[in-house]
Amino acid sequence: HPPPLRCRRSAVSGTIVTKALLAVNVAVFFAQTLSQGALTLAGAMVSSDIAAGQYYRLFTPMFLHGSFNHLLVNCFSLNAVGPQVEALYGLDRMSVVYLASGVAGNVLSCMMSSHMSVGASGAIFGLVGALGVFLARHQEMLGGGSKVALSSIGQTIFLNMALGLRPGSNIDNWGHLGGLVGGVV
């Protein structure tokens, strides 16, 4: 028999990474607001600026948001999936997945789009990808619930990508896809 699954969350850690990321996103948004958009312009994913050597723009956009509603949706999504990933993978691995997925999303977006992009959703899609991998790898231990959860994850990904295909949408599907792949890897 395989060993039982154990969460990596300790009594000390709880959801510290999720809470810290939420706090950073909110704090940066208020700094963006106070800077009247200057911070957004200084840190957004802009392909031409990255090509000119401003590589920090592969990292900074995951903490910037285009509007209060954008921030709200991303914080809600992070709060929904973050604690699960943090419990399963632990503080360090969740941090790495989040940051690496955010960068991966910005790299793919930079390669495939010339539009400016900001937001945490690539990193959050990475968390969803990591959660999906965990569920797929442990189906036999988790029973039928993992198939239902995997189906829900698939539907959520499909819906988000479909919303990004609407005319006039400002959703960065390349960033989402890159983040998802980053989380799966």
TrEMBL record:
One Pfam family from the record: Rhomboid
Molecular-function GO terms, alphabetical: serine-type endopeptidase activity
Membrane topology classification: Multi-pass membrane protein
Alphabetized UniProt keyword annotations: Membrane, Transmembrane, Transmembrane helix
Compartment(s) where it occurs, according to its Swiss-Prot or TrEMBL record: Membrane
Highest taxon in the source lineage: Eukaryota
Transmembrane segments: 116-136
InterPro entries from the UniProt entry: Peptidase_S54_rhomboid_dom, Rhomboid-like_sf, Rhomboid_protease_S54
GO cellular component, one term: membrane
Domain (Peptidase S54 rhomboid) ranges: 53-185
Entry-linked PANTHER family: RHOMBOID PROTEASE, RHOMBOID-LIKE PROTEIN 10, CHLOROPLASTIC
Name this protein carries in UniProt: Peptidase S54 rhomboid domain-containing protein
Phylogenetic classification of the source organism: Eukaryota, Cryptophyceae, Cryptomonadales, Hemiselmidaceae, Hemiselmis
